[in-house]
Amino acid sequence: MTGTAIKNWQSVQQEVLNRINSKLWKPGDLIPNEAQLASEFGCARATVNRALQNLADTGLLERRRKAGTRVATHPVRKATLDIPIIRKEITGKGYAYRYALVSTETVVPPRDMAARMRLKPDEKILHIVGLHMANGEPYVFENRWINSNVVPAVRDVDFSKQSPNEWLVENIPFTSGDIAFSALCAGAFEAEMLSCKTGEGLFVIDRSTWKAEGAITSVRLVFAPGYRIHTEI
Amino acid sequence: MTGTAIKNWQSVQQEVLNRINSKLWKPGDLIPNEAQLASEFGCARATVNRALQNLADTGLLERRRKAGTRVATHPVRKATLDIPIIRKEITGKGYAYRYALVSTETVVPPRDMAARMRLKPDEKILHIVGLHMANGEPYVFENRWINSNVVPAVRDVDFSKQSPNEWLVENIPFTSGDIAFSALCAGAFEAEMLSCKTGEGLFVIDRSTWKAEGAITSVRLVFAPGYRIHTEI
């Protein structure tokens, strides 16, 4: 390595990884600063910065302002998941996409949902159940609440034409949100929606988004048996 | 906003979010460059860069070298998940941690696992089943294969004292890996390991890691009923 100029951030990253893997730089060690590494590798400091930041993002390095960069002692690996529009996820896999509206109503939600969305007592909001299909087979259904008092435009939308998932992403930007992944055992409702057997293990995503005025939406996505989310670490 | 100096990257981010949310900057629009925004906000260009990069990381902006920064038309939101050592995850929730080794053997793995780990025909590797407990209750079990030919040091470890999860994280750095999330329906084996009923929906993580010499490990983590992973978007 020494003596060979490193041209891009990927090769800087590989060299840093090699030094960590070979224990030349051990867990807890302070590594040379960006300027020193740039000089050693014969590359721009920004190139070193990008490589180190990427390794910090994956949890292998710990960077502190002024205190410098250390090899992580207990690396907490991070995985980044893309959360696309469901239509794009399905067409991206090469399947034909279809959306079917199952039901829509404006009602007072169950108490736990009203609390999660911080509604007023007896506040009625929009409840939509819809099914996303891939090549005609159930792929995921969404059981969604939309705060129609925070997002009044939602009252004029025809959700038999477009899924609320897609309409919200395109029209209502959010400032914060949370997402949770879990599993459930298919009961009668899930089995009917997804044309599967009761007792199947189903992958579940719960998601809520917020803007300054309050909760926009809270949705449970329940996927057909066999669904997997995959990413690199 | 105009006329008020913005001091930190969080307030730059908030102002950019406000402009996107109010549709002052619409999906697809090219936004002013870093130098222009730094001048408008009366802050350092690095401050603007950090705010824009953060919004790009969450999928709201699309940045291209030389072509500039645009408001994403179909924002693909990204969620980042921490993948800690299981012991740290359990103690971090305030539970007492215990690990129990269930079985260990050196055998030829099933064909699909041998293919995934790119083993030679009839190559024997280490198979370990272990249970992680929180306050004495089953939390997750790991069904793990370790390529003892790529990681020979593993042969001398006593896995009744330390879980392979923790030993590998601390001793065998990896250069690449993948992770998948899914659900399964508890069969007799899962129900016995987790002291739950057959037919429960269980959350599953499959993870494989690699170094230059080959696959290090491939593990399936099966969590007790009710497990959730939660993060912000």
Automatic annotation (TrEMBL), chains A, B:
Keyword DNA-binding: yes
UniProt entry keywords in alphabetical sequence: DNA-binding, Transcription, Transcription regulation
One family name in Pfam for this protein: UTRA
Key word DNA damage present: no
Domain (HTH gntR-type) ranges: 6-74
CDD domains: WHTH_GntR
Protein name, entry field: GntR family transcriptional regulator
